[in-house]
Amino acid sequence: MSLRVIPEVAPVTDDDAFRHEIRDWLATNLTDELRGAGGPGRENEAFPQRLAFARRLAGAGWTTLAWPVAHGGRGASLQRQVIFHEEYARAGAPSRVDHIGTTMVGPTLIALGTRAQRDRFLPAIAAVGQLWCQGYSEPGAGSDLAGVITRARLDGDRWVLTGQKVWTSLAHVADWCFVLARTEPVPPGGPRHAGLSYLLVPMRQPGVTVRPIRQLTGDSEFNEVFFDDATTEAGLVVGEPGQGWRVAMATLAFERGAATVGQQVGFQRDLDDLVAVARRTGAATDPALRDRLTRAWIDLSVLRAHTLRSLTEDLPAGSSVIKLLWTRWRQGLGDLAMDVLSAGDAGPEATERWQRYFLFSRADTIYGGSNEIQRGIVAERVLGLPRQARG
Ligand SMILES: Cc1cc2nc3c(=O)[nH]c(=O)nc-3n(C[C@H](O)[C@H](O)[C@H](O)COP(=O)(O)OP(=O)(O)OC[C@H]3O[C@@H](n4cnc5c(N)ncnc54)[C@H](O)[C@@H]3O)c2cc1C
Known about the structure:
The protein is an alpha+beta fold and 391 residues long. It has helices spanning 14-29, 47-59, 78-90, 99-112, 115-126, 244-255, 259-281, 287-312, 318-342, 348-364, 371-382, and strands spanning 132-135, 151-155, 158-165, 176-182, 196-202, 208-213, 222-233, 237-238. It contains eleven helices and eight strands. It has a four-stranded mixed β-sheet. The chain has a four-stranded antiparallel β-sheet with strand order 2-3-7-6, with no helix packed on it.
């Protein structure tokens, strides 16, 4: 009889070594004041410290892990990006202040920018030397983004912008904004999104006014942004003038991806925290609340499995399904948290934290494409239902 020797320790793969590299880096660089700081509804929390941390992260090459080596990134495989985000979230590292630059506009410039634009902006974005905001939504154009009426006209060697953006996250700290503006009229009989351009606009200039909007949580993370003859250089249009829709959609596609996995590790921590609160308030012995906590764990496992699958398979409307699942999950956890708090005394810190979570989760089904819009995409692209009549 031959015995099969089972090694006690699995062989170390490069990915394991990579996991240890990020784990060690975080163990050395993550301080207690940063742990768990920031996140949806808490974007202003410890902002200067989170900015300094993002710069250290950049110095070690972690912020541009997914960028190609030729553009100053580490060209990491999808597997390694997932590992990074898992470890980052598991360690309780702070919510990133650089994500709009490093995961949205940076990859857009790599894919569609000119050489001059890449040379000028990528090094600063990678080093978190510049913060960016996204100027798409307007008072009359959110879900119906093609309806933007902010205008830009070329005057000599500069674009001159007039109009208003709204809900612009982090505009109050941003150095630059990528703005979707109308530069040409809609061609007769042509699509409404024709004639829009994607412009890179400096925020710190006399023609730009940023006015904070107070949210349900009492905080101000987003803003109104007014352009009154604000200007930017003629060369700072990404893609051809009038062809900005394609660029704007590419940016939205970059927003999703491997980071979603890290987001879900964060959800697991939220659930673990709520279970700990439930033990303190007595909710853990209430059969109905126990049942809901257990369901939350099961639903999160399903969400995670679907997300991992969608990273490697081209699932129809995959990102819409993920958005629908996670927003329903987070709002459900917020509702559950209110009932857990009602069961007993959770203490002031947990009460504040979970009330904020509950209130901010109302926004989850609005930003990044509302749930009605996501269900419309599933209806049309997956079920093949007739296109909705547009008003
Ligand atoms: C926290 C937060 C941060 C944000 N950050 C930014 C940012 O940084 N930059 C930026 O540009 N924007 C940002 N936004 C704006 C966001 O993208 C818009 O709020 C979103 O696109 C919805 O647009 P709207 O608010 O104009 O609502 P509308 O589009 O007017 O929708 C109102 C309601 O009608 C429903 N509806 C609209 N059209 C349809 C349809 N065809 N079928 C069915 N239902 C429909 C919607 O689902 C919604 O319930 C942010 C929003 C939030 C809440």
